[in-house]
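Risk register update: the risk that structure generation would not scale has been downgraded. Supporting records follow, first protein first.
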Amino acid sequence: MHPAFSVIFLTTLIGAGQGLFLALFTGQVYSSIQLIETQSASFYAIGSRIALVLLVLGLLSSFCHLGRPERAWRAATKWRTSWLSREVIVLPAVMGLVFLYGVFHWMGWTQPLFTMGAGQLPVDATLIIGVLGTLAAFALYVSTAMIYASVRFLQEWHSALTVSNFTFLGLASGFMLAAGYSAASGVDLVTFYGVWAVIFTVIGLLSRGAHLIRNARIKHKSNLQSAIGVRHQ
């Protein structure tokens, strides 16, 4: 496979943007239950802005490998059967939730709406948006990966390991970016995000390694000769 650079930019930028948002929300959850130090609202707001920029750049790069970009909207019409259509629908939803997550933090709309667990966990609007964004982000990981994993005649891709590769490598890049953002912001979360980045990187390495071992053992059901009906070597 020799994918277009726009496809590489698309998957890398969007995966990192999702991962950065998930890292920010993970930090907020940990701070809400007092496992790590609470950070300022601007930390989450600016981090969300960075994640949103990555998502937008990834979306823009997707137009570079379209033959007719003006017809891109039609990709969403086959959502019942096409994983590409589902990705096209879920991606704007993720972008919208990341935007709202950042705006609510920036505007200081973080007053608790109610509490959970005998009053131990105050729940505000950003936590609710974060949960919805987390679900949408994982749905986007799955949708993007299934574009390739659902192609049955490409046996190298047709595996659940394709989904795990996209997910864990995207999380690894996002948490690594969060560690760098923490260092640049002077926030004492470099170790927290860095450890998670290493964990996801190791899991991604194991997943990708298992994928390569699987692919090396594949017995192809057809080859170029059988596909075009030529028997001679």
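Supporting record for the second protein:
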Amino acid sequence: MIITRAPFRISLGGGGTDLPSYYSKFGGSCVSAAIDKYVFLTVNQSFKPEMHLRYSETEHVLPGRYDQIKHPILREALKMTGIERPIEITSMADILSGTGVGSSGSFTVALLKALHTYKRNFISPQDLAEQACKINMGILNSGSGKQDEYASAFGGINYFQINKQGVVTVTPLAVEPDTLHDLEERILLFFTGFTRSSERLLKEQAQKTEEGNLDVVGNLHITRTLGESMKDSLETGDTLRFGALLDEHWQNKKARSQGISSSAINELYDFAKSCGAVGGKIMGAGGGGFLMFYADKPGMLRKAMQKKGLQEVRFRFDFEGVKTVYSVEEYRIA
């Protein structure tokens, strides 16, 4: 048996410029952090002549019959790695999909890591992230960008620079331990209570960017600049400025599309600002999922949002990225 885990991520700044519709023209950059909430994948040899695929549903498929697999990521990952043996694959996760923390990217990274480990193939985080991007962005045309897969593969708090050819340079942020502690104490995540599909919003943005819509392109230019400023504020330890930039980032992001926010989200955001939040944003493409805040008074904000009925998910940063947490070969050697 092989068990892998891949972290979810919180997007801190610059999200949206990691889409090919933008970076292929201008180059993109964003700041993202992996957190200690995970997707887990298990791969095990099956004693039956079928492949057993268990996620929110269960599939039984003959080995090599990729066309019969309903789950698109499982289908393409098995096809990419060329596995045609009867195996069992099971997935579990700490957080629901559709909540803006990069679940599809994390799932794909964990799955590919497990399948490569099963085949005894070594694969670097960079190559793993690129293979995951090829599946989600290329083959499945999900409309997503590159930060989810890269954040999950590498772990840590990183600055991702993407050139016009789509090559990603990963630079870990030089953040002092005191700053990390401050961020873990003062960044709060609250679940809005509803999930959403990001595909429509992302494809809408991509289409307008490709058409040269001046409002959207100009908005993304500002987003990229804000992300770079947030990187600087974190590396200098100016976390209050980071919080204020989060607020500016959110106001700019909302202007990109009507579907990014809603009256309910706006009401929650304004309420949080009145209860100790310096700034915040909706995670992912928008429309629902998690609200993230940097709070000058985290205790006050936590109590206020709990009274509103919002569930908080507490976290620490993950600096390991995707990893194999168990394999029978390692166990036997030990």
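Residues 5 and 318 are 11 Å apart (CA to CA). On this basis the risk owner (M.S.) recommends closing the item.
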